[in-house]
TrEMBL record:
Family statement: Belongs to the short-chain dehydrogenases/reductases (SDR) family.
Organism expressing this protein natively: Arthrobacter humicola
UniProt protein name: SDR family oxidoreductase
Keywords: Oxidoreductase
Region (Disordered): 176-197
Occurrences of domain Ketoreductase (ranges): 7-193
Pfam families per UniProt: adh_short
SMART domains xref list: PKS_KR (SM00822)
Amino acid sequence: MSAGRTLNVLVTGGSGPSGIATARALRDAGHAVFTVGSDAARIEAAAADAGSGVTPLVCDLASLSDVRALRSSVAGLVGSVDGVIHLVGGWRGAKGITDQSDEDWDFLERNAITTLRNVSRVFFDDLAASDTGRFAMVSSTAVSAPTAGGASYAAAKAAAEAWTLAVADGFRRARPAADGTGSTEPTGPVQHATGQDKTGLSSAAVIFVVKALVDPAMRAKAPERKFPGFTDVADLAAAVVGLFSTPAGELNGQRLLLGH
């Protein structure tokens, strides 16, 4: 765990309300925050909104070569990354199964799956080597109860969850062996040096599960709405900050339900 140490955290999908709230909360917790978006003007405005010291970076996360260039840029600034909070998403729906469009699927595949695959592959070694490595994504309750109209959305989120759980397995296999041989196979509960908990893990991949997110602008537009079951972006941000003070063994591979 971080034990008060300043960590380098990347917030992808940083231009939206959840990205701004998360970057602000991480900055307030004392971490070095790099917030990433595809549009320069939007991500610069979002970083300014998040607070002084938050660094905006531009990247097309659906391009593997661009994500590799992003890692090189961050490495040139601060070295390795300790956390990646992946907030890229988007919704597409239809009336039922037969009118699920290829265009909507392509959008969801790009945003929900491809960006996550690229970011996790490129930054995996950084996170696995950190004494407080954390990877997190935001998923939906729709995965557990998909509707016909939301078939493409639920399927894309389910794929992203499966990939994230595979990242969690990667962290388990990457941990040092109890006997010091460097084996990458799980060896059972052990006590390691700084940063590792009693399971031997120092890095974790987690899934935040929400019905939907709500932010102050949404509440202001519809003051009569109660938004039942929704998760406020400030609560998501607080949960993200909490990842870095919670033992990896308690987090790795977990689906954490928020807003209920």
